[in-house]
Amino acid sequence: MTRTTRTTPARGRARRLVPAAALALALGAGLAACGDEEPTGSADTASAATEQAGSVTIGDPWVRATVGAEDTSMSAAFMTLDNDGDEDVTLVGASTEVAGMVEIHEMSMVDGAMAMQAVSDGLVVEAGRGKVLEPGGYHVMLMDLQGELAPGDEVELTLEFSDGSEQGLTAPVKEFTEEEGHYHEPGTGEHDH
Amino acid sequence: MSPAPRVSRRRLLGYVGSTGVGAAAGAGAVLAVGAEDAAPASTAPAPAVPGRTIEPWGAHQPGVAAPQAAVSELVALDLLPGVDRDALGRLMRLWTGDVEALAAGRGAPGDPAPWLSQPASDLTITVGVGPGACRPGLFGAGPPGFGDVPPMRHDRLQQRWSGGDLVVLVAGRDGTTVAHAVRRLVADAAPFARARWRQVGSWNPTDPSGRPQTGRNLFGQVDGSGNPQPGTPLFDATVWVDEGRWAGGSSLVVRRIRMDLDTWDELTRDEQERSVGRALADGAPLTGGPELADLDLAARSQGRLVVPADAHARRAHPSLNGGRRMFRKGANYTREVETEQGVEVESGLVFLAFQADLADQFVPVQQALDESDQLNEWTTAIGSASFAVLPGFEQGSWLGEQLLA
């Protein structure tokens, strides 16, 4: 189910990393299970103003092409998520016609090596802050792909938040020229507004 | 089939400033970063932020009216066989995402070298469409008057600098940033189009104190004094298509003009000035006044015209061309060319002319200059291309949406 990719840690870049303690917490939860969890947020979706999807701004989306890749059954979508609202939001899943299974994953250090696993409790974007989904960090894992993803294609993706609200986006498919499986950045950036 | 609406980017700039990429916070931040490992920085006054971050959105693509940038690079592309209207839509949405990220100083989505982008680079990216792509099944008809520039008697055009189905004009303060943006845009377009030609040049748009100036070509002439000023009704009427599918767009003529500096240098200063009708020192009309004063075309001295009958500035003057004018920009180039005699240096100007109606504005003025212009003796067009400049796009929309959706 969950592919674990190991690679040697590479140099980071000048971007503030998630504090080590927070990362460890996320890891502990993440190793337990992959996907399938029910939304855990408030079920009160009657008021559209409080919907999580309405507070989130998505930027710079793209999907990695599978053409030429060793394993063409899976890929990943990357983007930035900005929470402009007053409440934390939690990205719990996503769906797309091009993939049979979609999960929110992260790459992180486990026992000194990079490993990938599902973020089982969802990806929390705190109020007024943002998260970067990028190679080597958080990403939307696309598994059981229904066909090849070629550069120049577009993927329609629906993000699902813990209150049941959804936001759709269109992401271009781009060639990713770095060696497959080699994620060049340890950790995932998190930032203030 | 239309794609899901693009998401709002309302907080984009705030987001950018927070990533730590570049010193968007301003001079204080720049100094703080430098102080740790560069001792002189701690005593030097904080440098001013060197450039601007120019938002990519609006009724017009901002690169047209933006001040001349230090570096301009153009790449023309040809569409690959089989690219249709749907594919063009995907390319334009793809490029829109790249333009938004690069303009803000971020790497393009999926950029393997995002560090080469930085804010405050005066970066603008302008996209245009060649005559071959302005047809049914692609972008549809171009704006009124748009098409190929007809041949001119003095042209010596080379295919390698001419034509193209698409153009991207990237301008900015820094050649490295500009080159990186061009590279990403070309790489991302690979499924749809292949690069045809690429031209790069430089300009000095500020005086030593940092104030904007018109700038000079390699003849030493102040070049562009007669331009309509952005933000004025005259500029708007000159440059923008005002109605129809292309409203908010424009047209762009790119001419690669080789300049014979060796024979130009043989002229006396008086001959050089009379060939144009302006003083070399400050670009002022030979008939007096400051640089931006209008020429007095009737003025005579000792019986002869101060601005000669075949001076460039007279021949191009709107009053002698039915009021027709263009908005001109330029980029000086120097290139080594291998010849049988060895390596020679070719110098010239990548000349850019923006106008609402190519056939009614650019062509008649260019024909008048082709007929008579002293500068024809030292200048030769060796490349020519025309492009319909896409209208601007708002946040949540995309380049060319009104033409392709």
Automatic annotation (TrEMBL), chain A:
Residues 1-32 form the signal peptide. Residues 175-193 have a biased composition (Basic and acidic residues). Keywords: Signal. InterPro entries: LpqE-like, Lxx211020-like, PCuAC_sf. Residues 164-193 are annotated as: Disordered. The keyword Signal applies. The keyword Signal applies. Pfam families: PCuAC. PANTHER family: BLR7088 PROTEIN, COPPER CHAPERONE PCU(A)C. This is Copper(I)-binding protein.
From TrEMBL, chain B:
The keyword Membrane applies. The chain crosses the membrane at residues 12-35. PROSITE patterns: DYP_PEROXIDASE, TAT. One of its GO terms (molecular function) is peroxidase activity. Residues 200-231 are annotated as: Disordered. InterPro entries: Dimeric_a/b-barrel, Dyp_perox_C, Dyp_perox_N, Dyp_peroxidase, TAT_signal. Coiled coil: none annotated. Residues 215-392 form the Dyp-type peroxidase C-terminal domain. Keywords: Heme, Iron, Membrane, Metal-binding, Oxidoreductase, Peroxidase, Signal, Transmembrane, Transmembrane helix. Its cofactor is heme b. Its EC number is 1.11.1.19. Pfam families: Dyp_perox_C, Dyp_perox_N. It is an enzyme of class 1 (oxidoreductase). Residues 61-201 form the Dyp-type peroxidase N-terminal domain. Residues 201-216 have a biased composition (Polar residues). The keyword Cell membrane does not apply. NCBIfam families: Dyp_perox_fam (TIGR01413). Belongs to the DyP-type peroxidase family. This is Dye decolorizing peroxidase. It comes from Nocardioides salarius.
